[in-house]
Write a structure and sequence with these properties.
Elements (H helix, E strand, L loop, with lengths): L3 H19 L20 H15 L16 H12 L7 H19 L1
Helix pairs in contact: 1-2, 1-3
């Protein structure tokens, strides 16, 4: 099991590697850096980063635990891996809320 500092170091190193591949200026990466707005990553860059992290960290929290669409910052990525290594189980809360919204939409449509 990897500790939080080790995860953060690996994530930051991978972010810098992707930035270097893109020809972006390398600077110290912070957990508060927004992956798209601050670092200039495209969705493809994020996919490359997450694939590299899956190999480096030997795990993928985005397969079941956390939706990749919730990733906004470098810290979100670090947090996802920390939760994964802590053994957190996938939450169905988001699924339950989405199901409830869909049911309400159907009922509204039927009522028209």
């Amino acid at each position: 099991m990897k500790d939080n500092r080790e995860v953060e170091s690996i994530v930051h190193t991978a972010v810098l590697a992707v930035m270097s591949e893109k020809g972006l200026q390398g600077h110290a990466v912070a957990n508060t850096d927004h992956v798209v707005a601050t670092l200039g990553f495209s969705s493809l860059d994020l996919a490359v980063l997450l694939a590299q992290l899956e190999i480096a960290l030997e795990g993928d929290p985005f397969a079941e635990l956390i939706s990749v669409t919730t990733v906004r910052t470098v810290g979100d990525i670090c947090d996802a891996y920390c939760r994964f290594f802590a053994g957190e189980q996938p939450s169905t809360e988001l699924e339950d809320r989405a199901f409830d919204r869909a049911q309400r939409r159907v009922q509204t449509e039927r009522g028209k």
